[in-house]
Amino acid sequence: MTARIERPLSPHMQVYRWTLTMALSIVHRATGIALYAGTLLLVWWLVAAASGHNAYATVQAFTGSIIGRLIVFGYTWALMHHMLSGIRHFVWDLGYGFKANEREALTWGALIGGIVLTVLIWIIAYAIGGVR
């Protein structure tokens, strides 16, 4: 009978040291899922706009509420973060940005850029009167 060979088990998440790059890779996937849900809200808004005043007023009442605005704000952030993380992944696909300092810079850029773009979009929306 042959001797059993002890093989190492695959490392579990507890073995790895968490890095910002790892965390934002997971967040990138989560924002992709969130964009699916947010797109349903966008479809609801478009269908309501095509259906008439009463349907549109219902959607506007929801998106104008505190919860609605938080959802739309979150959707805006998910969109901006996912876009910038997608650019980060695209840069990696081109074969650039793999050095430790470049990885960190791209990751911080996606994180901070997503927040800054989201806040900027909302400031502009409020400034031009698009949000009441």
From TrEMBL:
Gene3D superfamilies: Fumarate reductase/succinate dehydrogenase, transmembrane subunit. Its cofactor is heme. Its main location: membrane. GO terms for biological process: tricarboxylic acid cycle. It is found in: Membrane. The keyword Metal-binding applies. GO terms for molecular function: electron transfer activity; metal ion binding. It is a multi-pass membrane protein. The keyword Transmembrane helix applies. It holds the Pfam family Sdh_cyt. It comes from the Bacteria. Keywords: Heme, Iron, Membrane, Metal-binding, Transmembrane, Transmembrane helix. The heme is bound between the two transmembrane subunits. InterPro entries: SQR/QFR_C/D, Succ_DH_cyt_bsu_CS, Succ_DH_cytb556, SuccDH_FuR_B_TM-su. The chain crosses the membrane at residues 20-46, 66-84, 105-128. Membrane-anchoring subunit of succinate dehydrogenase (SDH). Part of an enzyme complex containing four subunits: a flavoprotein, an iron-sulfur protein, plus two membrane-anchoring proteins, SdhC and SdhD. The complex can form homotrimers. Belongs to the cytochrome b560 family. PANTHER family: SUCCINATE DEHYDROGENASE CYTOCHROME B560 SUBUNIT (PTHR10978), SUCCINATE DEHYDROGENASE CYTOCHROME B560 SUBUNIT, MITOCHONDRIAL (PTHR10978:SF5). This is Succinate dehydrogenase cytochrome b556 subunit.
